[in-house]
Write a structure and sequence with these properties.
By secondary structure, the protein is of the alpha/beta class. It is built from nine helices and nine strands. The protein has a seven-stranded parallel beta sheet, sandwiched between helices. The mean pLDDT is 93. InterPro entries: NAD(P)-bd_dom_sf, SDR_fam, SDR_oxidoreductase. Belongs to the short-chain dehydrogenases/reductases (SDR) family.
Length: 283
C-alpha cells in the first residue's frame, strides 16, 4: 500500500472476543462498512466465517496469554501496518453473592476482564504513541458504575476497568490517543446464558437478594431490550465522532441507572458534607 493509500484507507480495528455477542456484531458491522478488522477469539474456528465478510484478519487470541497477545499484535501490524482502534471486548461474568463466590472463579474473571484488558492495551500503546494517534475502547457495563446483588465480583472487575480507563485517558490524551468506556445494560448477546459462570454454592439467607438476581439473569437471557446491532453502530459512530465521550451508555436502563446513581451520590454526599469537610486540620 502506498503512502497515499495508507493515509486515506479506513482505520484498522482490533477486537478481542469476537466469537459471540458485542464482539461479533461489531466486527460484522465494521466489515460491512469497509473497515479493516482484526477479529480474534480463543477458538479461531468460531470466527472463521468473518474472513469472508470483508478485509478481515482472523487470529487466535486468549487475552490471558502474553505470548498470544504479542503474536496477535505483531501479525496485525505486519498485515496492516498499524492498529488504529483497539476494542477490549473479551470478558466473562459470574453470578454469586459475595459470600457464595469461589476464589478460583473470581480470580479467573479478573484475569480476563481486567488483567487481560490491561495487557492488550499496553501491547498496542507503543505503536499508537509513535504515531501520536489511536483509540482504545474498553467494554465496561452499567455494572461498572453501580453494583447489584449476585454480581459483586463482576461489578468489582468492571469498577476496576473504569478506574484504569479514567487514569489512562488522562495519560494518553495529550499524546493523541483517546479512550472510551462502553457501558451497556441488558442486550441480547447471550452473556447471561453462555458467557457467565455461576457459583455452585448457595446460601439460603441470600435467596431473596442474590438468588433472585441469579434467576432473573438466567431466565431473562435472550429477551433483553438492548439490540446489539444498534449498539455496534453506536460504538462506531462514537469512535468516529469529532468529540467522542469518555463514557458511552447504551440502553435505556443503563442511562436511567447511571442518573439514579448520580442522584444517590449527590444526596448522600450533601447530607454528610459537614463531616467530610470537618476532617481536615483547622485552617
Amino acid at each position: 500500500m502506498s503512502t497515499t493509500d495508507a493515509a486515506t484507507a479506513k482505520p484498522v480495528w482490533f477486537i478481542t472476543g469476537c466469537s459471540t455477542g458485542f464482539g461479533r456484531h461489531l466486527a460484522e458491522q465494521l466489515l460491512a462498512d469497509g473497515y479493516r478488522v482484526v477479529v480474534t477469539a480463543r477458538k479461531p474456528a468460531d470466527i472463521a466465517d468473518l474472513a469472508a465478510k470483508g478485509d478481515a484478519l482472523v487470529l487466535a487470541l486468549d487475552v490471558t496469554d502474553s505470548g498470544q497477545i504479542a503474536a496477535a499484535v505483531a501479525a496485525a501490524e505486519a498485515k496492516y501496518g498499524r492498529i488504529d482502534v483497539l476494542v477490549n471486548n473479551a470478558g466473562i461474568g459470574y453470578f454469586a453473592a459475595v459470600e457464595e463466590s469461589e476464589d478460583a472463579a473470581t480470580r479467573r474473571m479478573f484475569d480476563i476482564n481486567v488483567f487481560g484488558l490491561a495487557a492488550m492495551t499496553t501491547a498496542v500503546l507503543p505503536g499508537m504513541r509513535a504515531r501520536r494517534s489511536g483509540f482504545v475502547v474498553n467494554f465496561s457495563s452499567i455494572g461498572g458504575l453501580r453494583a447489584f446483588p449476585a454480581l459483586g465480583w463482576y461489578n468489582a472487575s468492571k469498577f476496576a476497568v473504569e478506574g484504569l480507563s479514567e487514569a489512562l485517558w488522562q495519560e494518553t490524551e495529550p499524546l493523541g490517543i483517546k479512550v472510551m468506556l462502553v457501558e451497556p445494560s441488558g442486550f441480547r448477546t447471550d452473556w447471561a446464558g453462555r458467557s457467565a459462570d455461576e457459583s455452585a454454592v448457595t446460601i439460603e439467607d441470600y435467596t431473596a437478594t442474590a438468588g433472585a438476581r441469579r434467576r432473573a439473569l438466567r431466565t431473562g437471557s435472550g429477551n433483553q431490550p438492548g439490540d446489539p446491532v444498534r449498539a455496534a453502530k453506536a460504538i462506531v459512530a462514537a469512535v468516529e465522532s469529532k468529540a467522542p465521550p469518555h463514557r458511552l451508555l447504551l440502553g435505556n436502563w443503563a442511562y436511567d441507572q447511571a442518573l439514579a446513581k448520580l442522584d444517590e451520590l449527590r444526596g448522600e454526599f450533601t447530607a454528610w458534607e459537614g463531616t467530610a469537610r470537618g476532617a481536615d486540620f483547622p485552617k
